[in-house]
Design a protein that fits this description.
- This protein is α/β, with parallel strands linked by helices.
- The chain is 35% helix and 23% strand.
- It is built from 8 helices and 12 strands.
- It has a 5-stranded parallel β-sheet with strand order 2-1-3-4-5. A 5-stranded antiparallel β-sheet has the order 6-7-8-9-10, sandwiched between helices.
- α7 packs parallel to α8.
- The longest helix is centred in the middle third of the chain and has 19 residues.
- The chain starts with a strand and ends in a 12-residue tail after the last strand.
Length: 281
């Protein structure tokens, strides 16, 4: 059962959200015992505290429950150490609450589902698959190699999952083949820099393992990533940095500009001798 614990001092707030959640089958309560809270954790059932007070946030922390804090612009409190802050509860719904709960529990978000692929947030268990992908013939001709120190990369990846996904709700994701469940690549959005202006930009990146190339998977993953960026994350423009010899990526970029337009997709060709450096993740 999906449950919301309402710890609201202002009982007039959130009426639209409560109605929406009731229609979606959520139940409401004013509190849980520690045993009941532990039961939700063991069963992996969504349970969130929604509050407009520091006391409510402390209640959630004391029981390791997901906490969504209501913080209007003119409100008396500023919340820290909660899972999410909202300034208008009535704009939310159960799907959003479920995502906030997943973030608290470390459950990867499913970003997109296409005809043949699933894009989801990466998990540490993907790391060995990534190393295998990068060892394929020609895989690192135009992209950085995976680091030699696998344990340090595991620590870096754990930090990335916690900090980048949690802060931005986007990043570099894992690409899975729907039919087989096999990890076949990576795709997503990374912070980069415009080489001309030096301004920070968002780069769209994609990589498909050697056995699954020449099947259109790269285009499928890139289009899904761009769609998420523009339609869900509210991003205005994406950059692609491509080595001029990377003909496969050039074909993908052409498809992207055909779909989204050159005002949203900017393609920059790198110097022929330049190989991108590994970004922090």
């Amino acid at each position: 059962m999906k449950t919301v614990i309402r710890k609201m001092q202002d009982q007039t707030v959130g009426q639209g959200l409560w109605k929406t959640l009731a229609r979606e089958g959520w139940q409401f309560c004013e509190g849980l015992t520690r045993e009941e809270s532990d039961g939700y954790s063991r069963r992996q059932e969504p349970c969130l505290v929604i509050t407009d007070s520091p006391e409510g946030a402390e209640y959630a922390r004391g029981r390791d429950l997901t906490c969504l804090a209501y913080e209007p612009l003119d409100g008396p409190f500023r919340f820290y150490g909660v899972d999410m802050v909202a300034q208008d509860l009535d704009e939310l719904n159960g799907e959003f609450l479920n995502l906030v709960w997943k973030r608290h529990c470390g459950i990867p978000w499913r970003i997109a589902v296409t005809k043949r692929l699933i894009l989801r947030e990466s998990v540490l268990e993907d790391l060995d698959e990534f190393y295998s992908l990068y060892q394929g013939e020609g895989m690192t001709d135009y992209i950085p190699d995976m680091p030699q120190d696998r344990e340090q990369e595991r620590r870096d990846m754990a930090h990335y999952i916690k900090q980048v996904y949690g802060l931005y709700n986007y990043g570099l994701w894992t690409v899975v083949e729907r039919m087989s469940g096999q990890v076949v690549g990576r795709a997503g959005l990374e912070h980069s820099q415009d080489p001309e202006s030096g301004e920070p930009v968002l780069e769209l990146g994609y990589l498909i393992g050697r056995p699954w190339q020449r099947q259109g998977y790269g285009t499928e993953a890139a289009v899904a990533s761009a769609s998420y960026a523009f339609r869900t994350a509210g991003i205005d423009k994406l950059y692609l940095f491509i080595h001029p010899g990377n003909e496969a990526s050039l074909r993908v970029s052409e498809r992207l500009t055909d779909i989204f337009g050159k005002n949203k997709i900017r393609v920059i060709l790198l110097a022929p001798e330049k190989k991108p450096e590994k970004k922090t993740r």
